[in-house]
Amino acid sequence: MPSLDCRQERSALLAAVEAGSAEILELARWMAAHPELSLEEHATSQRYRAYLEAQGFAVRHPTAGMETAFLAEWGAPEARPCIALLAEMDALPGVGHACGHSLSGPASLLAATALAQVLPRAALRLRVLGCPAEELGIGKRRLVEAGAFDDCDAAMMAHAADMRRAHRLFLGNRKFEFVFHGRAAHAAAYPERGVNALDGVIQSFVAIGLLRQQLPRGVRVHGIVSDGGEAPNVIPERAAARFWVRALDEAVLDDAVARVLHCAEGAAAATGTRLELLEDESTSPPMRPNLPLAALYCKALSELGLPETDDPPDARIGSSDITHVSRVVPTIHPNFPIGTNLKLHTREFAQATASPAGEEGLLEAARALALTAQEFARSPEARSQVAAEGS
Fold this sequence. Notes:
Elements (H helix, E strand, L loop, with lengths): L5 H28 L8 H13 L3 E3 L9 E5 L7 E7 L12 H18 L6 E7 L7 H7 L8 E3 L2 E3 L10 E10 L15 H15 L8 E8 L10 E10 L2 H22 L2 E6 L11 H13 L18 H5 L4 E2 L2 E3 L9 H7 L2 H23 L1 H11 L1
Parallel strand pairs: 3-4, 3-5, 5-11, 6-12
Antiparallel strand pairs: 1-2, 2-4, 7-9, 7-10, 8-9
Helix pairs in contact: 1-3, 1-10, 3-10, 5-6, 7-10, 7-11
């Protein structure tokens, strides 16, 4: 094939996305009808891998200690840059693909295969990572810890929403379980012999509730009682609560966590209970943004005639394990719209993913990701700016 200039290459990418759209939309429809929960995405992972192998990608499976995770590569082994495209796959209990992974995963696959069809192998190395268990907050963390991103120069994926934005943030999320240990006793016959572990939980909620007025704007603290005892006539010897603490700024998050932990420690001291503190594996840091990489995605949207909505990067944000990736490689996680006034993790959102607007959103994401990756691969200046921002 004769070499193409940059404009021809970008036109060819869009044509490749269009040519591959029917097959990838069929995959998305299958996923919508067959949702699989975190770490149980066996059929989805198999279909992802078969699709990529048919397109000439070398697939390594399993990886990072997860049966459904995989790493697929295309390009010359020495080619630079190395661009990772992340393919999520898990659904939610009860509401299926109400987070849109049935669109975001296939969008990454379609962008990757379009790039592989158009760009020469010496121009870049593509790495598609099958990312399980985003809903548990652990899949990408385990991939990072396994070194899946160690030699990557950029990582990207796009996520369904009711907005279009190239730059999106995520809150850091520290997740704890406070387990209070006391001493059981008959609650009526000799309550004075017991030490009520539930009192420690209740006192923690009171203290944290009072703390909220002293926390900076943007800090979120929410909790539930995960163990309140067995019976009203038995003073609980064990009780527990789970609390999540979130913030955009790492220093603010660390300070808020320290103050919340002091509340639990104080509750234990006040009630005579013993506190056991557990931090969950799915804890995640705040997103580390890379604005030059986001600007490349914004440029791609402009080329496609798609204006961003007015939503700021911190509008309606939660947390995600993508933030672990952002700590080791320049990363973007833009949004593509599949409807209006939608709320994640609802049946309405799941229905929207299987609508014509959802399918068009998938194709928008694939086009924009492919153009972004091509610009990054072909522009030394862009790579330099992205690397400088991430250093």
